[in-house]
Amino acid sequence: MVEFTLISSLPFVLALLIVWPPVRALLGRGGQTLLLTSAIALMLVVYLGYFPYVANDQVLKLDLPWVEALGLHFTLYIDGLALLFGTIVVGIGVAVTLYTGFYFDDDQETGRFYTLLMAFTGSMLLLVFAGNVLTLFIAWELTSVISFLLISFKGAKSEAARVGAMRALIITGGGGLALIAGLLILSAAAGSTQFETILNTDLRSHPWYMGFTVLILLGCFTKSAQFPFHFWLPGGMTAPSPASAFLHSATMVKAGVYLLLRLEPTLGGSALWINALIGIGLITMLIGALFALQKRDLKALLAYSTISQLGALVALIGMPESAGIKAAVIGVLAHALYKAALFLMAGIVEHSTGTRNLDKLGGLRPLMPGAAVITALACLSMAGFPPMLGFVGKETLLDAAQPEGLLTTVPLIVMIISSILTVAVSARFAWDLFFAPAKADHHEHFHRPPLGLIISTGALAFMSLIGGVLLGPLIVPLIDAAVQKEFTLYLFPPEGLASPVFQTSLAVLALGGGIFAIRRWWLTWPDLPIPTGNQAYEWVIGAVNTCGDLLLRTQNGKLRHYLITILAGLALFIILLNFALGNLVQLRNLNFAFFNPPIDALRIVLILLAIITGLGAIILKKHLMAAISLSIMGYSVGGIFLLEPAPDVALVQILVETLATVLIIIMIARLSAKQREAILSVRFNHRYSVIRDVVIAASIGTVVGLFALIAVENRPVSSSINRPIALHYLQNTYRDLKITDTVGGIVTDYRGTDTVLEITVFAMAALGLLTLLTRPESRELIYGKAVQDIDQDFKKQVRLAEQAEREYEKELGVAQNERAESRMSTPLTRKIAALVLPFALLISAAHVLYSGVAPGDGFTAGVVAGLAVALWYVVYGYFEARERLNWLVPGRVVVLGLVLTLANAIMPEVFGGQFLEHITLSETWSPAGLHFASTLFFEIGIFLTVFGGSSIIMEAIAHPRELEERDIE
Amino acid sequence: MSDYVYLLGIVLAPLTGAVLCLTLARNNQLQRYLALIAAAIAWFCSLNVLSEVIRTGAPVIYRLGAWDPPYGIVLVGDSLSALFVLMASTVVLGGILYAVHCKDRCVTYPAFMTLFLCMATGLFGGFLTGDIFTLFVFMELMVISSVILVAISDNRLGLEAALKYLLISSMGTLFLLIGIAAIYATFNTLNMADIARLLSAGERPILSVAAAVMLMCAFLLKSAVFPFHFWQPDFHTTAPTPVHAVLSSVVVKVGVYGLIRMTTLLFTEEAIVIHNILVVLGVIGIFFGSLGALRTYDAKRMLAYSTFGQIGFILVAIGWGTPIALVGAIVYAVNHSFVKSALLMLTGVVSSRTKTKTAALTEIGGVGHQMIGTGLLYFLGGLALAGVPPLNGFISKVTLIQGGISAQSWIVLGLTVGAGLITLMYMMRTWQLIFQRKPDEQTVGLKDYGDSLLAPALLIAICVVLGLYATPLIEFVNGVVTYLGTPQIYISAVLGG
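Structure tokens for the assembled complex are given below, as produced in the milestone run.
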């Protein structure tokens, strides 16, 4: 069994070998042909030799674990059926491999094709030998993918090839999705992914039977080109002829048939199975034959004839009591032999004459006598002429469809009609191509096909003859191994001419000949008005595309719409979850103690002030007033914090409020009144938009307010299981840190990592701003259609741009200075500003040094110093301030701060402690009440980062470049 | 209580690297290699954490500042976070490797690598932290860094997209902050293990549901799930290629990770309702994203939409709620990260060869005709994304379907599997367009050199290996899901006792 596995993996090995260009070059085309053909031929001999081991329902097995958790094993399960299919694959494979060596004009193409061909052969063998549904599926998908690549083999030039390949991939890939779902459900139902177990389980009565059977059938029908999915096969005829012969008639399209045969013992016989297979199979058979008759293109004709034959096979597998299995197996073998030969012949004809159109071709017999004989043999087999193997196939087919009741006469009639049409198609292919007189001088460019092409095609055609003549010794043992039932097989029935099947066969031949004879009449008919499936496919694809376009319209770029949708989504989820969990009801039981707070005049004043100024910020029309009103609201809230008492929070609140107010005021000053009006008009562009905005804002306010109220009212109390962390901090700060300020302790110690990260966030925002401002102008950026042919004058453009920029900045600088002087710069303000910065730095130093014992810390220190810098920009104007502050490079300050922070955090770790561990450097030495610990460095780092960062932001906002837009307006 | 220092290393390596890069602002080349080393150290540390978790079979923790939980902040490496952080650090390493040889102008800016590493810090920390407020801080770091990275992108539309994301993301920040406030107000603790302990002890204060909704919405927004997805296509598409590769693959998984955590560790009772919401949103996302990818006009944008769809698959699997389905979700999330980042880098390699650095489908037809290696890798990546065997996407698909079978959710399973076909359509169509056809006459000439193929090739190799040799991943994730079934292990590992 190991030997068998190794030899079966030979194609994969060869594919990996010849995928390397050096190996290809070394072997040359002849070497490749010789090597690959002999390898595949060797495999054929070995497989034939294995037939005795699988006779009498014996099975060869190999089971290697792969991904056991998924039920994926590398399992081979080789019974007669699998071995017969494998033999067909390598049997046809030998001829196709030899043929390929002579088919392409280009060595490069030959190598590429050989690689794909070998990979396909390996995958196809894995498919038929697989003993695990997942192994089978892997091979199944591999064949689809390689088929995609082969159909689009000439895709570089041919649009049709690409479209055809895509269509084939979508149909077979879609079927593959159904198949994998079906197989997994089947495995779940059977409790195993191994065929050995599945085949011994009766699943027909399982509740999921209907589901997985339909899915598996979908997979098989798409792969085997059954109606209504059949149209991908003619579309796939853009593949090179050897690929068409191998994949699209002999092997890959039989994969569906193979899987049906494989699963028939365990799934077959149900009403669903019988009706689906016979129904779809017969429709496919008839439609295929009808279309084949009309086609002018040789390969299209063969493709439809293949579809017809595949339909017959599917219908046979669906016959009740497994009556059609024998016929199906013989049909697969016979069809593979003659159809592959005919496809290869179509390739030869195209190769020699440059066309495949039957209307242009004819009278080729004198030019290619050998080819004529070969075609005649293959077509006789296709038509079912004794003593060809195709005749045996047709006999068994008609025998399997023996009428036993009224209903079963329908299949028989359809099969007879299709057979008659097939006879006509065969005659048309052979006669019109070779024996009818030539239509025109289209054979001027005729060149004789290489002998290799003729030999490889001839071998297949002669096998059709030999298989028929030597049926007993040659074919019967193969079929015997594959079919589990007792059966009889003969070339001519023992009853002789008295046999009704034999009589029917002869009648079919005669009628088919008759139809062929009157072809001049029906060839002029218009195309049959049968929906081809192609239109349905196009319609579905169009509908899918339309859906996509409609969905993309929601991506309209309007931020307002996005935000509204997001809030609506949030509201929906709140409602859903509350209803589902019954929490809304509990709201009624809440008792808001909020309404009887400790009465306190100052508190009431502050609250009222906050409410009034909050409303003022909305109502006031002057922007400056609104901004100031907003900041008063912030200060009031800070005041409330102060009363709480939470001095740390109050300090931060007030400082941040100041910073924000300064930023807003500077920005307002930089925008013209006109611009501000324009912004306002955008806000109220629609009559209802105000109402909408008010509703949204009010609902959010209500919900968040409710949250806060509930939170305040439901403060957890210390219980046996809950020990609030806040309490722990308050009780233990001094013990742990030797400092009295709990907030400071939380910020720099207990939750110091948060602080490290937050100042990094702050630094990144500032650095990002810096990068945005100092990066090259967008006109230099290379993107999109706008800038083409950049190479020629790119540098010149950049130089010009830079020069213009410099002059512009100079002008602006003057203007800015003048403006600044006239507005803010008085001798008094200049003096004050000059004094403020050193003072601010002093306050900052105090905040940093005494962060452990008093409110204020590195962050507030940074903001205070940053505010002083802001004042300089306001008073001195951008250029003078930059000049005076030349010692301050904010970027470097930020970096220094970050380095200090991180170094301080990492240091304990280096010396055996923990990241950010609190280290008291000296317990005793504390000059001026200073607590000397690692946190001191941390605070300095925070200060530097925040100071540098806010300076960057100030500089960015004060930068005159922004004026550009106003001047444009 | 023993602290596992490699846990700290995962977060600290990129953070230190970021600061060091700043000090080397003048030497761009050195910055790039420094960033690479930092990412490699983080990757090595995460590998160590994973092997330690496997070895001991229990979560490892690191107490920052040596404070015991729940009073201080802890990093927790359990099997789930160790897996996600290893996945993330691998992709980040790939992204930085790509950036090292990237020809984009923005990579030459002094702050680029710093921002990239800060984004990575936020990402890794988000997976590792055992403290819900620190999660918020890490996410902020990630958001602000990525916003700036997109704003300074070579693509001129980056600034607008970054601004929009900043505003939308601040909504997410608000949700998260309110959720955290609600949790703190009701439980008076921020440590996730402590919250889980209180919740599992039967404490159901009124705000816990509100907190659950807020956290869920914040995570959904981070993962760009319908109806919170609007920012994603613009923001991702305009990002510089190496950043896009990280954003669209692992950064969006932070939300997924958060959802898994909150449904298995914290809100196990509310999980049933959350699961139903996730299934619905997932199905919408699958179709919205896949159809968007099919119809959009740009190869990078297509992959951004595709991420939108793929997140949908993961959400559906989480929503099915069975252990097998959760295995599917995690396996899917891991595999998708490698495939998506590789595909984005390959698209970047192609568009870096065009003179206008474009990925617009109308302009890159046939551009890759001569790029055999890139074409092969893209083909493999496309098949992996579509779930074609024997690549890793197939493993994801099988686990996903098995999850659906275990949940017996037939209609959703059908929709999910069927939508897989759209993935196959857009990937193969784009492959044909870029690599198979010959370029049109009017296509602008190509540059002789572009971005390096090294990083995407390595990532595709991971995809192939994870496809052919999936047993370790599957078995590990099986262990993860079993472990998630008993949150008590996490709680006692963090809180002791």
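The beta strands of chain A are 60-67, 72-78. Residues 21-54 of chain A form the longest helix (34 residues). Further analysis is deferred to the final report.
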